[in-house]
Amino acid sequence: MSDAVVSFALESLRDLLIHEVNLLPRVKEQVDLLKDDLGFMNSFLKDSEGKQNEHYMVKELISQIRDAAFQAEDVISIYMAHVIKQRRRNLLRKLLHSFGHAAVLHDVASETTRIKNKIDNIYANKSRFGIEAGSHSHLDEEAERLLEQRRRDVEEVDVVGLANDTTTMVDQLTDGRSLGLEVTSIIGMGGLGKTTLARKIYKNSRIKNHFDCCAWVNVSQEYKTRRLLLDMMKCFMSLSDEIFKKSDEELKHTLHDNLKGKKYFVVMDDVWKPEVWDQMKAAFPDESNGSRLLITSREKDVATHSSSTPPYSLPFLDDDASWELFCKKVFRGEKCPSYLKSLGRQLAKSCKGLPLSIVVLGGILANKDKTHQMWSSFVGNVSRFLFEDRNTCFDILALSYNQLPRRLKLCFLYVGVFPEDVEISVRHLTQLWVAEGFIPVQKGINRKPEEDIGIAELYLAELIDRSLIQVASRRSDGGVKTCRIHDLLRDFCINVSMEEKLFEVHADADLLSSSSNNTTIKARRLSFQGFCTWKQST
């Protein structure tokens, strides 16, 4: 996950050198060397994306690149401050100071060259470490497997709170008002229960009786069109050896012909990319007989791309439904002892209505002593326990983060600096993004401040559409006034940002503890919370 933080430092530093090269006529050689090294480092980061957690050497090298980039960024910032001062000095003093600046830049170039030499060694043996450009991370594949397991876990305890959602969706799919082929979507953040709801709909007796045939296919991030077609065809027809010899286009025609004259229902679960629909839609005939497709996704863009019908945004569980699910997972059919009810409700409520959190927490507590003392140790520390085993919530949420384009990763992580449970002023947030330099500059274009804010608001809209940020309130013109982030996602941002030295969050007690232990803080930014009541302008 280091690529976003490191790439930002490298690219912003390279842009600075490009834009200010006219101020550095005496050190052009060092500047060119530094730009080349930074470009090489950035290429390495793109090639090794997703591999740093799998290979210690790669992770360690990226850490060194990050430190060198930050150091270079600091040195250049100091140098540019001196350049600005020089403009006010006389010619002789400018000349004398330029030699000092050249030495500083030379040191930075030497440091980045040293790191580049290490990268050369990795590149010479990159096949040995499984680092290939464009390769897919096995961590994402493992997270996909874990996500499917979590879905089964939720299914086993019969997730609660979806009865009304199921009825609403089944009514919509079977009302018969429109005979043309329609695509309906369910969207929401990871772990919210989209797949579980889709399964309830798929298995509903009204659906089975209303449609002639049904099919379910799991798409996932790294899908193959051919596999989707074959999986779907298995639900509708027997597959002969000849079928497997056909091309993808021939498979689409075969499936299309098989579905002609039938009222069919197809669920495409866990769709991440809009192009999935473009590649599959030719297989679905529109016979004006009321056939339906149901898509589940974390991405609003997927829903709007495949259909003009507004997507169904799955809500979080309320407190009562959260408690019911929590009890089913922890006690497995038994009643909760009266002495644990108050504490249990507090723990269930701390999951903020996210079924994934409730199921994972319930699974942990089911194997712990059911005592007041044991459960009390979880109060205020739920996220820490959920993230203790990275093969649960953390890696499942990381699927959404890894899918983000680089321009959005830092903006998303930065939301973690805000205190828990606050409504964040969009005006304040976007101004901070611009001030931090997260909105990239375009060479040769001088944008006005309000144009940068406009771009930042578009970034926020995209994070909302990806179910990572929630709308808290809107302005009178319909724009987003305040937003919020789920506690689990906030803690994910804090965890990643601490690893990448982007920022650290400290409460008053944490700071006192750190001071007493002489802990060295290496983060680029610090957020101190708990000293006073949070207040912001909107």
TrEMBL record:
Leader sequence residues: none
Pfam families (UniProt xref): NB-ARC, Rx_N, WHD_DRP
The keyword Repeat is annotated on this UniProt entry: yes
Name of the molecule in the record: Disease resistance protein RPP13 isoform X1
Span of domain Disease resistance protein winged helix: 417-492
PANTHER family the record matches: DISEASE RESISTANCE PROTEIN RP, DISEASE RESISTANCE PROTEIN RPP13-RELATED
InterPro entries: Apaf_helical, Disease_R_plants, NB-ARC, P-loop_NTPase, RX-like_CC, Rx_N, WH-like_DNA-bd_sf, WHD_DRP
Keyword terms of this UniProt record: Nucleotide-binding, Plant defense, Repeat
